[in-house]
Design brief:
With 125 residues, this protein is mainly α. 66% of the residues lie in helices and 0% in strands. It has four helices and no strands.
């Protein structure tokens, strides 16, 4: 069976080698491991099965996006009650908006890596 991999796009993380190249899955695992809480690295099943780790990273990043969006949506109404100056609130809103954009990019990157890992696993079977 010929190996077919997902094409590399602008969403491909620079920390992950090109699919099919030497040790690319190990670079993917290392990158994905950085996206989940550190305690998950102690679970051998996640470390031995990069596709499973990728699935967990997708869930983790989606959760982080929801948290950042909630923080962004509630900042203007909830932060004044904490006694924060308006300039701090505005800076915080910009920070959350930037984080949502960054996390959205990471989510696309995780999806790209997941597709490549899935394609690689299917090609081996």
């Amino acid at each position: 069976m010929a190996l077919t991999y997902s094409p590399i796009t602008s969403d491909w993380p620079c920390q992950v080698k090109t699919p099919g190249s030497f040790d690319w899955e190990r670079s993917a695992t290392k990158w994905l491991r950085e996206l989940v809480p550190a305690r998950y690295a102690s679970y051998p099943t996640l470390m031995k099965h990069p596709v499973l780790l990728a699935r967990h990273a997708q869930i983790q990043v989606q959760h982080e996006i929801r948290v950042a969006r909630t923080a962004l949506q509630t900042a203007r109404s909830e932060l004044p009650a904490l006694g924060l100056h308006e300039s701090v609130i505005e800076h915080t809103i910009k920070m959350y908006a930037a984080e949502v954009l960054q996390l959205s990019h990471i989510a696309r990157s995780v999806r790209a890596v997941t597709h490549a890992l899935t394609d690689s696993a299917a090609a081996r079977n």
